């Protein structure tokens, strides 16, 4: 009879380990290939100055947003290109910071919480606009109705800064408001929408709203609860142009809290008060939370 050589257990183990090693090496090679490919793409994009988003799809999204505001709006090709360049620089900056946040938390993948953290930090440090500086924002928000008077050489009562343009609150009536500030009502978009609808129904312009807020200062129609930071302010208080938008936000909140409930729709007045009130952080990014709960109230839970 022909002899059959039996394979020992050690030889079977060796075969298995060889198979595992080949699979591991193949996986590593694949991973290396994908990593080198992605790195090559990143380097290529960093060197080039071309736009990353397709022009046609970007134009369609711009057109859809503009149609909601005004159906008869038209855009020049140069204007759309300028918008695309600005949006791409903003997105690249935000995603770069989100990548740093992911690396800091010892992760490779950029997650939603990284983006939320980065946008929150950007709002804290640049609360008015992500691109333009503070003075440009103030000039775009508050437009001079008359020629301003000479600057009063004194210190600001809020930031105690000496030097610069300081005016009393009564002199701020020479300005007029163009639109609601971006960070009004703690970035609550739903609350801004309610205020704008109320202004439209009552035929009140932004300028009249601004003047009524200043009249509240002269008549002292607010208390410490409504204006916790600036309850000391009066018509003779000297405020610099950097601190004035913050003062106006407090005045706007005090004005909104005094709107009677019978002038607002039932879906607005029937809402339950949020535990964190005006200091709620969820109202900034969660529109459903802002619609469901009322945030024109004080904080009851810490």
Automatic annotation (TrEMBL):
Gene3D superfamilies, A to Z: Histone, subunit A
Keywords: Cell cycle, Nucleus, Transferase, Ubl conjugation pathway
Region entry Disordered, spans: 1-29
Signal peptide (UniProt feature, chain positions): none
Residues covered by the Core Histone H2A/H2B/H3 domain: 36-118
Residue stretches making up the E3 ubiquitin-protein ligase CHFR cysteine rich domain: 166-259
Compartments where located: Nucleus
UniProt KW Transmembrane helix keyword: no
Keyword GTP-binding assigned: no
Family the entry assigns: Belongs to the histone H3 family.
Name under which the protein is recorded: Histone H3.1
